């Protein structure tokens, strides 16, 4: 009997190629397919020594080379290209076979595809894969959704190639249908928020502290040894240390200051708006990227010479220590919001996602991997229905201990005209959460005045409306 593959990968650009190599390096026979066969041949020529590959020129050959239940990993651009690949392969598959979308698909697309393929007796698994090209090869964090029963046949293979922490794979069945891609999307939203906060910390150290990029690289290197230790802090030190070969200038000074975005952070905010979850940290990071890319309005502002204070005055404390505190507290807020969004979606869609398990599989392999995810895991292991991470003792102590410094940093940023929407919005969120009374009462009054939208009272149940135009403005039951 001709040799059969345990898993197949179609779409052999760098991510797909590296996933295929990773499976092969772990002793699995891997079927290969790509729209152009040349790329398939190249992979085998260059990496055939790493394991057993079964290159297929056609979709039919590819499917025929897979053992049952067939496991087909799709690694193509999210969107129509994914639908095209599904349309090409689904007719060739049989009951119980599975298609695994390892791209950054939108979770709503995954839910649609999973339902459609389930009707044909096929499994569809939307799997978030985080860690970029290096992660795909050496061990990503993998967030597979889809039917629980397909995880029995698929999970062991994914766990083999996933990053490990103390021997534990950074891969777990997240939940049904779109749950995996939803969690990956929120991972990316948190990634955006984390990156924005780091950028604001850099900006303050540069413009208020007068530190050079090389000096700030050393500061981040030191922070990476402590509670802020994470992949993003680590690479920030590397990026800031970099000198541009062509000019001899600091790399960060020759890069155009317009941040781009493929869209997953934007999706996170859109989903949060629909779920009613205030992910202000993620939202501010998406808008900060948009502002940085707003060429016309920034040029107009420059031409008009929008007035404001210049930076560089003395900070009212130890700037480096204060910024570290502000960064850690704001990061905790961003992660608390992200996990609240995962819990809200899990409730909305009936996914039964275990937030502690998500923190656990994010401890390695993914872009937001960080030491403090251990504390998030512990918090949810202690109390899975925790309303917000901010009330877990570890995080409560960390944020309350940071808040004087945090407030000094937000004041300095405002006084010296340095945009710090991440730090400031996180502080506003924290103060909003702990406020005994919010000015939302006035908003309810305004809404009732102009739109008769009714309001509730603090002293008795029910909904009420005031007859604002009537004599004496009587209140009536709504
Ligand atoms: C990951 C990354 C990756 C993501 C890009 C997007 O988890 O490996 O998040 O999936 O696609 O980094 O970057 P932008 O959205 O910033 O373009």
Automatic annotation (TrEMBL):
Binding sites annotated in the UniProt record for substrate: 104, 130-132, 187-188, 192, 262, 289, 447, 453
Residue span(s) of domain 6-phosphogluconate dehydrogenase C-terminal: 180-469
GO molecular function, one term: NADP binding
Superkingdom classification of source: Bacteria
Keyword Electron transport: no
Binding residue positions for NADP(+): 11-16, 34-36, 76-78, 104
UniProt catalytic activity: 6-phospho-D-gluconate + NADP(+) = D-ribulose 5-phosphate + CO2 + NADPH
Name used for this protein in its record: 6-phosphogluconate dehydrogenase, decarboxylating
SMART domains per UniProt: 6PGD
């Amino acid at each position: 009997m001709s040799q059969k593959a345990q898993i197949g990968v179609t779409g052999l650009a760098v991510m797909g190629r590296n996933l295929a190599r990773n499976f092969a390096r772990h002793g699995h026979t891997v079927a290969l397919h790509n729209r152009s066969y040349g790329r398939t041949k190249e992979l085998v020529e260059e990496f055939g020594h790493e394991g057993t590959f079964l290159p297929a020129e056609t979709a039919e050959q590819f499917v025929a080379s897979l053992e049952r239940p067939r496991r087909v990993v799709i690694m193509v651009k999210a969107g129509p290209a994914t639908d095209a690949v599904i349309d090409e392969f689904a007719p060739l598959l049989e009951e119980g076979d599975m298609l695994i979308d390892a791209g950054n698909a939108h979770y709503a697309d995954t839910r649609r595809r999973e339902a459609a393929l389930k009707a044909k007796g096929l499994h569809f698994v939307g799997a978030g894969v985080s860690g970029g090209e290096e992660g795909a090869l050496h061990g990503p964090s993998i967030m597979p959704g889809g039917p629980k029963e397909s995880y029995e046949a698929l999970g062991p293979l994914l766990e083999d190639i996933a990053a490990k922490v103390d021997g534990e794979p950074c891969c777990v069945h997240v939940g049904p249908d779109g749950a995996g891609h939803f969690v990956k999307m929120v991972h990316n939203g948190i990634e955006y928020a984390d990156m924005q906060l780091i950028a604001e910390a850099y900006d303050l150290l540069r413009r208020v502290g007068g530190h050079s990029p090389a000096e700030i690289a050393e500061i981040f290197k030191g922070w990476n040894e402590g509670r802020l230790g994470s992949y993003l802090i680590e690479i920030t030190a590397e990026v800031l240390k970099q000198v541009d070969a062509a000019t001899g200038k600091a790399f960060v000074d020759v890069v155009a200051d317009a941040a781009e975005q493929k869209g997953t952070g934007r999706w996170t905010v859109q989903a949060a708006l629909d779920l009613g979850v205030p992910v202000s940290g993620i939202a501010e990071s998406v808008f900060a990227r948009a502002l940085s890319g707003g060429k016309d309005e920034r040029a107009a502002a420059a031409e008009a010479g929008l007035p404001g204070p210049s930076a560089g005055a003395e900070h009212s404390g130890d700037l480096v220590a204060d910024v570290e505190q502000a960064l850690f507290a704001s990061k905790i807020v961003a992660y608390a919001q992200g996990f609240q969004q995962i819990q809200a979606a899990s409730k909305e869609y009936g996914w039964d996602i275990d937030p502690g398990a998500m923190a656990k599989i994010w401890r390695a392999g993914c872009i937001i991997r960080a030491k403090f995810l251990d504390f998030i895991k512990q918090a949810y292991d202690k109390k899975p229905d925790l309303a917000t991470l901010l009330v877990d003792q570890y995080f409560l102590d960390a944020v309350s201990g940071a808040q004087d410094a945090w407030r000094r940093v937000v004041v300095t940023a405002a006084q010296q005209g340095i945009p710090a929407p991440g730090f400031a919005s996180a502080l506003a969120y924290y103060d909003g959460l702990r406020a005994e009374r919010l000015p939302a009462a006035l908003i309810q009054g305004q809404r009732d005045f102009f739109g008769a939208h009714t309001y509730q009272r603090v002293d008795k149940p029910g909904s009420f409306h005031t007859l604002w135009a009537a004599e004496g403005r009587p209140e009536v039951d709504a």
